[in-house]
């Protein structure tokens, strides 16, 4: 099995919390991470109807049966269990008792905030990162293959063709499983909405425009976007708050957790199509932003990322907000270019941003699909395959 970067963090947290909760999209490998890391622990799944019935009808008996060292999979299926867990771990007064996993972030977080606050730490596990694929030597050969294949573990473990995996994933989890969380009745309209979102990756979110194109109200569109976000299908990159010009946009940008899923939603049938696809640049940007998010999540941190754009359309694709040892904020700017040949124009927006923010050249970077590391007077150009620090 492929080693997940988050496993080290899991062990550390079990030393200081009675419960560790792993959340993330379906099929991202949460159960595998827990079971491979804790091979001697008990494992129970609340997806199993008999186990779920036992737990639902007798939570006390369930916890007596599994008093500690237990992985409880899809724990959100029995919300009442969380209150009993609170009492149980408080009485035990020890750490490293349970690992909970769950796919539906909304239900999990509501239950945790009500019952387990201060008793559990949350880890977010997403599909294989670039670094995990590289270390396991399963990295697709070209950038187009990487975008098209995505990172869901079953594609690699079971050798499922990406086009087949994502077709089934959309049918089983995106269109049906997610839709049922809010009892959305019209499957066809919801499916069209998700596909319209895919066509807007890397773009400023215009909810009214999205709603009009789908034939629904803006309020419904907001609800469905929130549903997709809490189910780990999409996420939003917020605008940078530093108002250097007093004319910044306020809308977030829309991205997907996995680029392979987007390709399927866009009906891209093979990686060759990506060489000339009109959304190639957006898909590469999505892939790059996912890589920065994975770096943070795999360290047990929340990503501190944003983008910068003024009302004249001058944009920096990604701002990585770091903090120096003295507490001073240090924004690192990244432009993300799908081209493989260096152009001085790559630094046009970066130079403008650096002048406004008074940032040095070493804080300005370009990621591109070429192979050469290039150091210029305006900043660095970094090959996609290089490590990001």
Characterise the protein shown here:
The protein has 389 residues and is of the alpha/beta class. Helix content is 41%, strand content 17%. It is built from 16 helices and 13 strands. It is globular, with a radius of gyration of 22 Å. It starts with 6 loop residues before the first helix and ends in a 6-residue tail after the last strand.
Roughly what is the average pLDDT, rounded to an integer? 93
Q: Which residue ranges are poorly predicted, with pLDDT under 50 across at least 5 consecutive positions?
A: none
Terminal residue distance: 26 Å
Percent strand: 15-25%
Q: Which sequence of strands runs across the widest sheet?
A: 8-9-10-11-13-12
* Rg value: 22 Å
Order of helices and strands: HEHEHHEHEHEHHHHHHHEEHHEEEHEEE
Summary?
It contains 16 helices and 13 strands. It has helices at 7-14, 30-37, 49-57, 59-65, 81-92, 105-116, 130-135, 143-149, 153-157, 162-180, 187-198, 207-214, 218-230, 259-265, 280-297, 348-357; strands at 19-23, 42-45, 70-73, 98-102, 120-124, 234-237, 253-256, 305-309, 315-323, 329-336, 364-368, 374-376, 379-383. Helix 5 (81-92) links the parallel strand 3 and strand 4.
